[in-house]
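Lab notebook, bench 4. We co-purified these components, and the gel suggests they stay together. Before we commit to crystallization screens, I want a quick structural picture of the whole thing.
Request: model the full complex, all chains together.
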Amino acid sequence: MALKKIRKENYPEWYQAVVAEADMAENSSSPGCMVIKPWGYGIWERIRDVFDEKIKSTDHENCYFPMFIPLSFFQKEAEHVDGFAKEMAVVTHSRLSMKDGKLVPDSKLEEPLIVRPTSEAIIADSFSKWVKSYRDLPVLVNQWANVVRWEMRPRLFLRTREFLWQEGHTAHSSSEEAEEETTRMLEAYRDLCENTLAMPVLTGRKPEHEKFPGAVDTYCVEAMMQDGKALQAGTSHFLGQNFAKSANISFVNKQNQQEFAYTTSWGVSTRLIGGVIMTHADDEGMVVPPKIAPYQVVIVPVVKNTTDEDAVMDYIAQIRTELAKQMPFGEKIRVKLDKRDKASVDKFWEWTRKGAPIILEIGKRDADGNNVMLKERIKLGTPEGKLILSREEMIAGISSRLENIQKAMFDKANSRLHSNIRTDISTVEEFAAYFGQSNEWIEDGKQAKVAFVRGKWCADPQSEELLKAMKITIRCIPFDQSNTQGVCLLTGKPATMDVIYARSY
Amino acid sequence: MALKKIRKENYPEWYQAVVAEADMAENSSSPGCMVIKPWGYGIWERIRDVFDEKIKSTDHENCYFPMFIPLSFFQKEAEHVDGFAKEMAVVTHSRLSMKDGKLVPDSKLEEPLIVRPTSEAIIADSFSKWVKSYRDLPVLVNQWANVVRWEMRPRLFLRTREFLWQEGHTAHSSSEEAEEETTRMLEAYRDLCENTLAMPVLTGRKPEHEKFPGAVDTYCVEAMMQDGKALQAGTSHFLGQNFAKSANISFVNKQNQQEFAYTTSWGVSTRLIGGVIMTHADDEGMVVPPKIAPYQVVIVPVVKNTTDEDAVMDYIAQIRTELAKQMPFGEKIRVKLDKRDKASVDKFWEWTRKGAPIILEIGKRDADGNNVMLKERIKLGTPEGKLILSREEMIAGISSRLENIQKAMFDKANSRLHSNIRTDISTVEEFAAYFGQSNEWIEDGKQAKVAFVRGKWCADPQSEELLKAMKITIRCIPFDQSNTQGVCLLTGKPATMDVIYARSY
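Here is the predicted assembly.
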């Protein structure tokens, strides 16, 4: 049963429908901010737990820094404030008072406070106190926090004024070590996207004009959505000595000389959930990769009358006990028994819309026959996707079934990504004609009308103007630059590198 | 080796010294806000994980609601806004602009936004959209979030402008069910404090004038600090229909009538860490209960020269493998090998200051003799607390050792609490004389000069004035009210109940 809006009809409305029908999030009465509902938040918790383990296993420690940053801190790094000044929530008062029957802000602050859009400014201040000698380095910290950027066109998960993220911040005694850290965490993001979210990505460096404000280099993971647009899924910044100089993070090195530290920062946010939706969801709703599904298996009892109920529930209890011993991906399986007082068919569709990887429908006939009816959210070879299995067969196969689903989801998205990077566009006319078309849903196994272009670039300001006019961006400069000879497809000037061009979220 | 300030000399300065020397948190450059450092945050993560499991096992689901609450939402519940208006951070602008070379707030918002001091107002708004019929009830949600209350006298962990907490919010179809929920979560807090933090508490109801603004009833857990002052460790509120009426959370009941829902809310915060410090820390620094210690066992290698190093590190590797199989409290043990390039004696004192429950010092002699030197942070019977054990003996005993430490910490604090509740004060003169003394550190096993008083109360406004003048508060009305006959010890009027009086944090 399809959603009210399907992908080929109206992709943006389909996206909204998926989020709404899966009950993952909704707009709130707080302008531009969302409420993340249990199913959406459950997915975020899984992402957080997986990545938190990675953060810790790479020797980072979690901390928590203040959400409020004194305005003057932003005056220290000119590029940084330029990048964020237009979208900052500013706290100016510390109380409300009643005036003429109305509540109004009162007690004006001496110095306004900015609600963190990102925490380099305030964390650099702490680092400057912590770091005195090369012995204090490296400092490797991370925080899970909310941040605020005043988006004017908010969209659930993709762009909300407040969002949740992790931000890693590190300081090092050498440029090389800091650059290694930047690369290590980029690779951690690639691994997270591909092996946990089943969302393939391209990795590379951002061009100068797309860098994080204040960074020397920004590296990124870029995913392709089902409409051929790019989504920046995570970034890792090498900040050089920029923030160290503005906040005075300096140390005495082994040669007994005073030197500024080298810092990095890196982050991924709840935006990843938007990426997961646009990578995997279909016309029936959400599809959650098993590794991040709050529930991997949902059991829907089918009880026609009270006489049957005991037998069915006893049989289900037995199945749950056996399921609980299974370890897909080497972890405890997550099983939900949906006992709500609701028709089983409604429950079935609800969990389909939510994208639970496997639904088991179990009724009296199944209990009598020692069977279960199993439905995989994505169809792996079986046209209808509903299977009747013996209990033993179902239990024995559940882990590999979940693992196969995870793999199949990645493979499908990966083939979509890699078969939709055009490399045969070499003139601005071809480029303009290609991107003159609008992005449309890429049907499974078909070629995209518009997606990514890999082509030559000269890095000349003139080319940036052209891109701006066409609303096309350079997503990244891929690490593999096998053949950089040739001319820029935008300007015809000598090219210095290959880049990925795309329309983006 | 004692801290610079010890408890009996200057209790408040000792507290600051513990936090600083254990490197748990520090004041930040953001006024009134703290930086929670890895050791402090690690303790918070353990508390969060333990309580999150409880939240989920009692059928609550985690969500995330906006941090910004439109000002007008506070106009709906008069008592609620009265309670918080004086300490609210107000966002009034959404960008910064450069004016005369200075960054200034720009783009004034049409409606100011309040940074949540607590989320009843914004969550009630969501509930009003979610709840239509009795079938939609109960709604049982929780969020882990940061909140802001504009404290004028901030103290690390105890009172900071921004702090971290969990806030549970629920809506029910009957008053009885909501009251049950309130009690259930109060009991969950008691369990958390006593069985996880080893911090004994008294439970009860708050008097009318100490209730949460907007609540019908506030229940609380109150702990006794080592200076005899009370610390409110957690609260659970029965909100009746107050917020339901102001936000219009109404539903069609089984009798097909429109009715307002009954709501509750409950929370504990990073303040708990302040409570843990003042319950357990001693003159040598922090003492962390094993259940919430980021590392339960810390291994400090003692290596005198590089020849020894391999042998010692091999021996330690073997010990770590064996330790990893131990399951204190039925969970994976948390072991840290401190490999830093630092003198072992400095490491030893650092982990002592941090309050790691068990330190193992392992050198060449231990490796040769198949021994370890074990130090328990709190001394359980062994005067010096340093033991030499065979490797096998240490491994076999490590779980019960940690469990015994946890139990001993609770028992000690519990006996301190229960032996320092005076019940023999019956006149205002005695009361004034008792509380005329200042709070002092309660030496182990000794009687407090000032701590708690359990006595009669009349609930008359006159008594509240008296208490206010003396800066004494009623901490709670205990649930056990065996003998309520008699006269109020403050006013001499007929008493209606027993209450707990104390000075508090």
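Chain A touches chain B through 64 residues (CB under 8 Å). Worth comparing against the SEC data before the next meeting. The mean pLDDT of chain A is 96.
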